[in-house]
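Kindly inspect this one:
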Amino acid sequence: AGGLGVEYDEYVPMHRRCCEIMVSLTKIEVESISGKKVNVGTGLPPKLLTRDGRINHEEHEKLAQEDWEIDNGGMGFLDYERFASCWFQIADQFTDK
């Protein structure tokens, strides 16, 4: 890293770990506000997962590249503001509106 922020080679493993966590959350049954038991959705594209529920490496590379282009906004790295925005976007996927 050049010290400016998070670069692509640091972003991809972080992105993958976030995807793995989101997949693991689908196996957790939670009680919704209405009191019903529901499985948490991943918000990930279905093609990202193999039939046995693991992350498809090739599809992850494509998704990580797409997300990187959006997240870095042409800067080539994530500064503090863009890094924080990534986490808020993830939190937003798992938060009732």
Q: What stands out?
A: The longest strand covers residues 29-31.
